[in-house]
Amino acid sequence: MTYAIGEDAEFGIACLGITHPHTSGRVKAFQRMPGARLMGAYDDSPLLAPFVDALGLEARTKEAILADPNVHAVLVHSKSHSMATLAVEALEAGKAVLCEKPAGRGSADTAR
Question: Where do the Gfo/Idh/MocA-like oxidoreductase N-terminal domain residues begin and end (predicted)?
């Protein structure tokens, strides 16, 4: 998968899961990156509302993020039990994926 980002192009990024400790730092780094555009975040955690409020993001459904052609990549930063499933769903939707560790609950999850 290759994306060419020119001066006027935007690279859309969204979060699938926000409960990993590195999530806010990664979001802030992408917010400072020219050409990167944060397209929202999904999580079933009650922490989603304060997370998106603090970082100026939109709360979205997983389905909306995966169907959005302007989202080119996702950060999978969910709880361990859902990381593998979210990563596979994002890959099947044609998204580039950055999956935080651990990428699941064991070798069966990560082999997927």
Answer: 26-103
**Distance linking the first and last C-alpha atoms of the chain:** 19
Would you kindly state where each structural domain of the chain is located, as residue ranges?
Answer: 11-111
Q: What share of the chain is helix, strand, coil (3-state, %, to 5)?
A: 40, 20, 45
**How far apart (Å, rounded) are the C-alpha atoms in residues 41 and 15?**
4
Q: What is the mean pLDDT of the chain?
A: 88
E strand or H helix that includes residue 16: strand 11-16
- Token pair belonging to 48: 């989603």
Kindly report the pTM of this predicted structure: 0.85
β-strand partners of 16: 42, 76
User: How is domain 11-111 classified at the CATH fold level?
Assistant: Rossmann fold (3.40.50)
Across-strand partners of 41? 15, 59
**Residue 59: predicted pLDDT:** 98
